[in-house]
Each structure stands twice: as structure tokens, then as C-alpha cells.
TrEMBL record:
HAMAP family: Trp_tRNA_synth_B. It is found in: Cytoplasm. It comes from Gordonia phosphorivorans. This is Tryptophan--tRNA ligase. Keywords: Aminoacyl-tRNA synthetase, ATP-binding, Cytoplasm, Ligase, Nucleotide-binding, Protein biosynthesis.
Length: 333
């Protein structure tokens, strides 16, 4: 079967607009294009940075509620929590033993995330994070992985490790491809439109959380940094702020950037901001309601996760058994 898989970390109370436009929106669309879809919450990745336990537990369920509210359908997709599939951690060990130390050292996310606290305090888990991600993917014989631009290097490593295993031990893993939609692969910070929108930015003034009060988010959009000049056109180099707002509005309204730009001839940045803020408000208002409803009946969320874990484990266990056999582990029975 042709399979698609992706994950989103439970490290915040709300997904942000970059998560949605860069990733989850594609997940929803791809449910119909592939035979099987696997979407999961990587809680094991989350603990590569310090997390409050009660908050992590809650955010994991909130993440599931958001996926469902955004249109990931448990009838068509397997939805699960990473730590419910112990085979992923077992497979990670095997892949770690195939990864060069130098190769792992070249992963840029580790350099970025460890730069704040320094190497002494960064965890080894943060260092091996991309290998866990590779295991997430190869465990399920996945063809495509829909992600934003910041995951490209992790997908390259995944491909390298899958190929390396295959050439050393014989055809075992499907070698997966990143599926990155260039227009939406990087949504930018509203205050700093050459940096990606991220929950770990120094200030949250440029971050749109889907579950925030829409009034607050609309205000952030109206205060977005725009560019010199006054013409509204799409130009990432000269007009990064304007281009970001055009991208966001186009995605949320289903209209093309070209069509939007035509409508703004002779108008000012203020018009673009107000319209983009309105489009966001229209999108998030019903979404917040649906998430609240889902969180009011947690039994349903737990059922979705139990069914997802059962299905995902069957697949991952098959892969792991094949891997253990190929590398020469003595069977337990
Ligand atoms: P995470 O949780 O940081 O982000 C989830 C998804 O959102 C995308 N994204 C963005 N896209 C466009 N513009 C932005 N500003 C933006 N910010 C985030 C990310 O690219 C990602 O697709 N390591 C992954 C989680 C993961 C995973 C996996 C993904 C673990 N295992 C296996 C795919 C397959 C991460 O931290 O994503």
C-alpha cells in the first residue's frame, strides 16, 4: 500500500499557523490520495527538551483534539501517540548503531536548539532526535512525509539510513520522500518576516496560535511588520512581510496570490492586513469551538488513540521483527 506519515510535537497548548499551513493542511488533503495515512504525536521527541509532566500529558490530548478539529479523520487515518508504540524506540537503537557520530553532528536543529543553554546542558536525546524521527518513518514503510521546510534535513538523514540498512542487510525499508509544498513550506514570523514562525521565537508578537483569542490574533496581524514602499505585490526578497500576509490569506481563503494581488491594485498595506486578519478570524472561530467540544468528551479521544495504537503497533512490530532477524538477533523463543 502507498503510505503517508507525519507527526507534530505536543510542546504547546496550540498549533500555530505555520504548523497548520506547512503541514497539517497537507495531512488532511492527503488522506484521500494515499491508501493509508499515519499521523501521530511525538511525545518522545517532546522530552528532548524539558517538559512539565502534567502539561505534556494534557498537550498530547489537546494535539489530538486539534488534529480531529482540523479535519484529520480517524476513519481514514491512523492517529496515535508515539510512546504507545515501543517498537519505534527499539528500532531507534538499531538505526543509532548505523549512524555516524559526525553525520549526527551535522544536523542543524541540534546546533540551533543547543545553542541557548550550551552543549554541556543539551541532552543526548536532543542529539539523537533525528534518528528517532527516522525510526518513526521507516517503521511504517512510508512513501511520503508531508512536512515544512525545517524538516528537510531530517528526511535526508532518514533516506540515508534506510538506504544504508537496505544495502547492508538486504531490501527492508521503503526509502521515503519528503513532501514539501514550496508556497507554504515556511510561514514567517509576523514581526520578523525573514525568520520562520516558531513557538520558540524570543517574542510571541509574530506568532499566531490557532487557539488564541481571535481578537488577539487579528491584532497581531494588523501589527505585522510590512515593508518599505506601498505597493502590494508578492516578492519574497523585497517584500517579505507583504508576501507572508499574501501567502497566509491565500491559504485561508482558497484564493490564489495572483488573484489577491490584482484586487489590491491602488490599495494600501492596511487593507491587506485587515482582510488577512478577517480571514484568520473566520477560520479559527469555529475551530476553537470544535476543539473545546472534543476536549469535553475525552473518552472519544482515548478511543481514537487506542484504535490507532493497535493498528500502528501491528505494522511497526512486523518491521521490527524483520529488522531483528536481518541483523542477526537470536529470536527469544
Ligand atoms: P514540529 O512539531 O516542530 O512541527 C510540525 C510541522 O509543522 C511544520 N512547521 C512549519 N511549516 C511551515 N512554516 C513554519 N513556520 C513551520 N513551523 C513548523 C514542521 O515542518 C512540521 O512538519 N520533528 C518534527 C516532528 C516529527 C516528525 C516525525 C515529522 C517527529 N517525527 C516523523 C514527520 C515524520 C517536528 O518537530 O515538527
Amino acid at each position: 500500500p502507498r503510505r503517508v506519515l507525519s507527526g507534530i510535537q505536543p510542546t504547546s497548548d496550540s498549533f500555530h499557523l505555520g504548523n497548520y499551513l506547512g503541514a497539517v493542511r497537507q495531512w488532511v488533503a492527503l488522506q484521500d490520495d494515499f491508501d493509508e495515512a499515519f499521523y501521530f504525536i511525538p511525545d518522545m521527541h517532546a522530552i528532548t527538551m524539558p517538559q512539565d509532566p502534567a502539561q505534556l500529558r494534557e498537550r498530547t490530548l489537546r494535539s489530538v483534539a486539534q488534529l480531529l478539529a482540523l479535519g484529520v479523520d480517524p476513519e481514514r487515518s491512523t492517529i496515535y501517540v508515539q510512546s504507545h508504540i515501543p517498537e519505534i524506540a527499539q528500532l531507534t537503537w538499531v538505526l543509532q548503531c548505523l549512524t555516524g557520530f559526525g553525520e549526527a553532528s551535522r544536523m542543524t536543529q541540534f546546533k540551533d536548539k543547543s545553542s541557548k543553554g550550551g552543549l554541556e546542558s543539551a541532552s543526548v536525546g536532543l542529539f539523537t532526535y533525528p534518528i528517532l524521527q527516522a525510526a518513526d518513518i521507516v517503521a511504517f514503510d512510508v512513501d511520503e512525509v508531508p512536512v515544512g521546510e525545517d524538516q528537510r534535513q531530517h528526511l535526508e538523514l532518514t533516506r540515508d539510513l534506510a538506504q544504508r540498512f537496505n544495502s547492508r542487510y538486504g531490501e527492508t525499508f521503503v526509502v521515503p520522500k519528503a513532501r514539501i509544498v514550496s508556497e507554504y513550506a515556511k510561514i514567517y514570523d509576523l514581526q520578523n518576516p525573514t525568520a520562520k514562525m516558531s513557538k520558540s521565537a524570543d517574542s510571541d508578537a509574530g506568532l499566531i496560535n490557532l487557539l488564541d483569542d481571535p481578537k488577539r490574533s487579528a491584532k497581531k496581524i494588523r501589527s505585522a511588520v510590512t515593508d518599505s514602499g506601498s505597493e502590494i505585490r508578492f516578492d519574497r526578497e523585497e517584500k517579505p512581510g507583504v508576501s507572508n500576509l499574501l501567502t497566509i490569506q491565500a491559504a485561508l481563503t482558497g484564493r490564489s496570490v495572483d488573484e489577491l494581488v490584482e484586487g489590491y491594485v491602488g490599495k494600501q498595506y492596511g487593507h491587506l492586513k485587515v482582510d488577512t486578519a478577517d480571514a484568520l478570524t473566520e477560520f479559527v472561530t469555529p475551530l476553537r469551538g470544535r476543539v473545546e467540544e472534543l476536549l469535553d468528551d475525552r473518552a472519544v479521544l482515548h478511543e481514537v488513540l487506542a484504535a490507532g495504537a493497535a493498528k500502528a503497533r501491528t505494522t511497526a512490530a512486523k518491521t521490527l521483527a524483520e529488522v531483528y532477524e536481518k541483523i542477526g538477533f537470536q529470536p527469544a523463543t
